């Protein structure tokens, strides 16, 4: 489970007497809806927001940073585009400026996002080369993995508490409510909804990435696979946090906004 502790900006957020604090707060909340697709955590809690400010005339400026200069450009494009979309929904802003900094493909990514050109078009002819597939396919792949990892977070504590595989196979999401961690269950429901998989209380607790119920015979292998995805998320998150801290000289917990 990821706990938001606030961003660690490269410089202080600009707030003049003419800048409504509600707009700044609204931009931060919008950014909390933007996820790193591989880590399944929001860009604020990951400290990927280097700057967030709103000018007196209502222009939002957001600078995103990543752990390394060579982070995957498709992931980077997704996050910048999603941030632009999310911040653009904040009421009261007159314009939005979202850019990626300190990345080898930042120029192409920023130009593509600003022009709403899409990743394939933006990367054509660049040093990144031709994209093989559109980003929506990549997004679904990582959302499926996030759903599997979320299944592990919800089911593993139940198994540790003595719930048998047979009982797990017959459980619904409603059965897990009040037993599983609330945030983990909420996130699992959210990922399932993103994939078009039923996520109400009557829906089976354990399903495969296309929504099919997992039977008792397939349950052990399915749960091991779910565990492997969560281990991968934990390991990659730890590596990325360490790289980001080393790159930008971050120390201690992230600072609260403002």
From TrEMBL:
Where does the record place a coiled coil?
none
Q: Which Gene3D superfamilies match?
A: Fe-S cluster assembly (FSCA) (3.30.300.130)
- Superkingdom of origin: Bacteria
- List the InterPro entries hit by this protein, alphabetically: FSCA_dom_sf, MIP18-like
Ranges of residues in domain MIP18 family-like: 27-98
**SUPFAM superfamilies membership:** Fe-S cluster assembly (FSCA) domain-like
State what protein this is by name: Iron-sulfur cluster assembly protein
In its UniProt entry, the species of origin is given as Actinomycetospora chlora
Upper lineage is: Bacteria, Bacillati, Actinomycetota, Actinomycetes, Pseudonocardiales
